[in-house]
Amino acid sequence: MRSLVALLFALSSTAALAAVDPRTVPTQLPAAWQAKTRALFKQAIEIPSVRGRGEVPQVAKLLADQFRAAGIPDADIHFMPYEALPGDKTEALIVRWRSPHPTKKPMLILGHMDVVEAKREDWKYDPFEFREEGGYFLGRGTSDMKNGDVATTMAAVKLMSEGFKPDRDIIFFYSGDEETQGKGATLGSTQWRNLTDAEFGLNADGGGASYDRNFRPLGFGISMAEKTFQTYFFTTHNPGGHSSRPRPDNAIYDLADALEKLRAYRFEPMQNEITRGYFAERAQQEGNSPLGRQIRAWLANPKDGAAADAIEANPLEVGLTRTRCVATMLKGGHADNALPQTAQATVNCRIFPGVEPKQVQAELQQLVGPKVEIVADPGYIGVPTPASPPRADVINAVKAASLRFHGPAMHVFPVMSTGASDGSFFRAKGIPVYDVDGSWGISPDDERAHGLDERIPVRAMYDDVLHWEMIMKALAG
User: Fold this and answer.
1) 3-state helix, strand, coil in the chain (%, to 5)
2) What is the distance between the alpha carbons of residues 59 and 47, in angstroms, rounded to a whole number?
């Protein structure tokens, strides 16, 4: 029996169309709106809205000015300052586009205005200088995620200029610290709920289509679930002593032994409705390839750990079959001529939806033994969130938009995000969220979010505006 998700996402023949470089297809966004979009995108990218610089309010003002000029009154534009961390001030922006005669509950559109730090010495060019080269827009935030901020804003402004009247309020929520603490989304889903309460949310920070390097479509994923983000600190202790007289025990060695165990460990494979729908589509794409056979074996037997391991060995599928934990930072010792008294590793876990972080902590503690102290990062305790239930209206809206821009070979299917976004905070408080951004890229192995020379195809930016225009019309028209 096929799952509900698979039925909702059922598509026609999987026969591939001729490969076409999507960057060479003429854009449909009118030239005047291309110019407006490019100008706003340039301004947004050149504001270095990274943690500690205090520049996020400038992005909020930039976006708010667009809504205000389009006719949104000041009473429905809310600047919400807050501290992400002590001394780290930032801001969220909440804009409400009111329906003159609402017949449905509001919908929420999510994004974030902050970006990950980028150092000038690491990049070929200034990361906060907006550039166009080789069919791409380049700069920090071009793909994560000022593209989504600009696309959602410009789509709304374009619709307002054309006289579109939504039949439900559309609320835009742009946070200021998604890349660090997520305090804005925490406040947005709780203390500011009077401004953000909605029937469902659409997240511009996820989802989307991709092509391989031969310009064959790989699919359009709608993220309906997210893993839980949780960091743990592994610490070992030792009396230490003089380095000329080594002890049989050593804090650094004990920690190294624990990390070796972690590297080899595999949590139990898990499936949910979303991942089963995703892998059902992937099995069709892969056909009778080794990966396709492993996927079908695992779908038939969710406890088949060997099949799940083989699936995760593929770079496209890492993190999708279970909880994954990885060491990300190290520190230890206090002098080169002294035995270490402490050693500590930072271990970041992305936990399968529905699993409690305390359960993972207990499993890790059992793995490494009593010599290692494990504590959760007190600055951020993850909250498991349920998968959002499939909505036919959202799925159909995305299918229609994908068909327009990518054709029938770009199949639409559900995915579980291995990362985390502001959407998880709203899911935790009862607002289902769907990641449906219309940006697309060339090959997943060219993914540059958080990395060097971040970029997005020029046409993908303009398509994203029209994508969001279609989504708003379909769900609020």
Assistant:
1) 35, 25, 40
2) 7
Residues 281-301 have pLDDT tens digits of: 999 989 999 999 999 999 999
What is the per-residue pLDDT across 143-159, written as a single tens digit (0 to 9) for each?
Answer: 999 999 999 999 999 99
> What is the residue whose two structure tokens read 């946070």?
175
pLDDT in tens, 423-473: 999 999 999 999 999 999 887 767 788 888 899 999 999 999 999 999 999
Asked if residue 80 has a cis previous peptide bond (ω within 30° of 0), the answer is no
Q: Could you read off the pLDDT of 257-276 as tens digits, one per residue?
A: 999 999 999 999 999 999 99
Query: Please, are residues 469 and 158 in contact by the beta-carbon 8 Å criterion?
Result: yes
Contacts 24+ apart (CB under 8 A), 401-405: 401/438, 401/466, 401/467, 401/470, 401/471, 401/474, 402/209, 402/220, 404/466, 404/470, 405/209, 405/438, 405/440, 405/463, 405/466, 405/467
Beta strands per DSSP E along 208-311: 208-211, 217-226, 228-237, 241-242
Residue 7 clears pLDDT 80, i.e. is over it: no
**CA pair distance 436, 221, nearest whole angstrom:** 8
Residue 238 and residue 249 in contact, taking contact as beta carbons nearer than 8 Å:
yes
At residue 66, what are phi and psi to the nearest 5 degrees?
-65, -45
Give the whole-angstrom CA distance, residue 58 versus residue 60.
Answer: 5
pLDDT at 14 over 50: no
pLDDT in the model for residue 334: 96
Q: How many residues does the chain have?
A: 477
Q: Give how far Cα 287 sits from Cα of 14, 86, 282, 283, 284, Å.
A: 10, 53, 9, 6, 5
Beta strand 88-97 with 170-175 is antiparallel
CB 76 within 8 A of CB 98: yes
* Cα 219 from Cα 443, distance rounded (Å): 11
